[in-house]
Each structure stands twice: as structure tokens, then as C-alpha cells.
Specification:
homodimer; alpha/beta; Rossmann fold; 5 helices
């Protein structure tokens, strides 16, 4: 079941672009509506109330706000993986994430101090498409010995099959607040069960 | 006067690195402490209570959380300038920001739909160093006709003179929650007036 406020907003303000792209930059990943974001955070908290986590993890840049909102509401630290290797970090976990835009793999890194075997991680991101960013995060967590307890996405593009991809990596607890069935012919179809 | 919780945290967890770098990635720009961030947001709200703004603006990625916290508390939309030109935006304001790390200029962009002449902007960022990122944002705002009413920084490195640089661009309302006087000899000296 989609979060109603999010569903309504996607239908009113979302735009379909070529190549299976859903543009939601008026409220989610360029301009951010704090009212909607609070509802998104609260819904993640509700859906993941059954699992125990001590840390929220995401990837810069678009995942940062929803992840922070969840961390803020759950009173937990938030760590975001970086897409460039900072000169200030010399001891990091590293994975590679395939980027469609660039048609190449990019590194993601996370300071070793901020993930360890005692950590139970909730990963939050804005989009689940093919699941490549999620794969990168799962790899970073496994390098550190941390456990990924769940993965939450504001919007899932079901037709890009990221959920199956992540499940094959052993993650069963996946929540998406709006699941897009298709964007065919410029028509946004959101799953309604 | 520095925000006490921030000052204490910088002194306990901050690290001085070569080249005038203050590493605060354990609580501000890699791992984020939501308690401290709430205090940071509340302090910005208090300090900027005298000016009227309708939009918070920042630059990805490290500025996003403090800017969002302020937008959340003030119930205002938050817009973050992007460091890459997204394929989904074809109509944007653009400026160039000099980056010390890369020793080159990088573009920052902002969708024209999200800044306009009616906007009164509060810019929030994690660091004020030389002020080059701030300059880029002032330029984007001026292209759009929006007014920059104030600029707020979590940490200002006074010895890099960004404040004078921004003042010369005509911005008078600048607030920094902790002002670092020097990092000489690995000693973090915070202004105490």
C-alpha cells in the first residue's frame, strides 16, 4: 500500500521522462518538501518497527534527507557513503556501483570507523531501480561485518526489478513507500494493493 | 558566541589535518548525530528569527542535512544546488565554484523552477572557508532575481577569510555557530566572545 500523501504527490507533480525516468525533483531530490518528508520518515519508522537497528545508512546525495529524517525520528546516527574518496579519510570500505547515467562504475566509500560488526543497519534511499546502489551498500556492510536488517525506499520502480536483485543478495526485509508498476506512454501507474 | 554543544563536540571529536582542514566527519559530514543536528537547526532558527525568508538553499552533499533541519523546523522548502548537471533538467541556473581539493572550477546548477524573483533565501552550509561555494550560490540567486537574506554556517574557519569575501558581495547577515580562529600546531582554537 502506497503512502497516500506520497502517491498523491507523485501523481500530481511527477513527470515521466524517456528511459524509464520518473522526475520528482520538485519535492524529493532537488527541492524538498519538509511536510511530505516528515510523513515519509514516520511511515518508514512504522513499517520497520519490528526490526532492531542502531544505525541508518544511505548514499549521497539524494538519499541523505529521507535517511536523516528516519534517523532523526528514531534518534539514531546516520552515515552516508560518499561517492568520492575524501582526502581526509585513509581507512575506508569501498565498493563499486554501476551508474546508468555515466555508463560506468563509480566507487562508493565509507570510513571504517563508522561501521563495525556490532552494527544493525537500516538502509534508506530515495529510489530503488535496478538495485545497484543497494548492492554497493550491502557490500560495504558485509566488509565491515555489520548486518543489513532492512532496506527502505521512497519510490521503487518495479519494472527495473531491483527487489529481486536485492533478495538474491540475501536481504528479505524491503519496504517501498510507493511502487511504480510502469511509466509506459507517459502514464504513471502506482501499485494499489 | 559558539553553540555550546557544537563547541564541545568539535573540541572532543574534531581532528586537525594538514592544510587547514578540520575533520568533523564523526558527527557532521559523514556520520551525523541527530541530537546535535537538532540543536544546530534550532540555533539557526533563533539567530535568523529577525529576517523573513521563504526558502532554504544549500549545496550537495554536506550542506543538505543542516539545511534540511532548518527547513524542517521553519516549515520551509529546501533546495539544494547540484554539482553535476542532471540529464533530467534542461533549464537551469549555473555558476562555477573553485574547489581546492581538485584545484579546478566545478559547475553548480539549480533548476530554474525552484528559484524566482519572489524568493527570499536563507543559505545554510556546513563550512565557511574561503567563501567560494557561497559565492556560487549568491550568483545563482542573483541570476534568478531571488534575494539572499542571510547565510548560516555550522563552522567558520575565520583564518580563511570567507566572511570578508561574502561581505564584499553585499551579504551582511552572516551567522556561524562555531568560529575557528586557528588550527595551528594541531590545536583547535574556537572564538569565545
Amino acid at each position: 500500500m502506497a503512502l497516500k500523501a506520497l502517491r498523491d504527490r507523485i501523481l500530481s507533480d511527477g513527470q515521466c521522462l524517456e528511459g524509464g525516468i520518473l522526475k520528482v525533483d520538485s519535492f524529493l531530490n532537488h527541492q524538498i518538501d519538509p511536510y511530505l518528508m516528515e510523513q515519509i520518515g514516520a511511515e518508514f519508522v512504522r513499517r520497520f518497527a519490528d526490526i532492531k537497528v542502531n544505525k541508518i545508512v544511505t548514499i549521497e546525495a539524494s538519499g541523505i534527507v529521507p535517511a536523516f529524517m528516519v534517523g532523526y525520528l528514531m534518534k539514531l546516527p546516520v552515515v552516508f557513503a560518499k561517492k568520492k574518496i575524501p582526502s581526509t579519510i585513509d581507512n575506508f570500505y569501498q565498493a563499486r556501483v554501476y551508474s546508468f547515467t555515466k555508463q560506468t562504475e563509480c566507487p562508493i566509500v565509507l570510513n571504517k570507523e563508522y561501521l563495525n560488526p556490532d552494527d544493525h543497519v537500516l538502509f534508506i534511499d530515495d529510489f530503488l531501480a535496478c538495485g545497484y546502489a543497494s548492492k554497493g551498500i550491502i557490500e560495504l556492510c558485509r566488509q565491515s561485518g555489520a548486518t543489513v536488517e532492512g532496506m527502505g525506499f521512497v519510490i521503487e520502480k518495479e519494472f527495473q526489478h531491483g527487489r529481486q536483485f536485492i533478495r538474491k543478495m540475501g536481504i528479505q526485509r524491503i519496504e517501498s513507500l510507493a511502487i511504480i508498476e510502469s511509466l509506459d506512454n507517459g502514464d504513471i501507474k502506482i501499485k494499489e494493493d
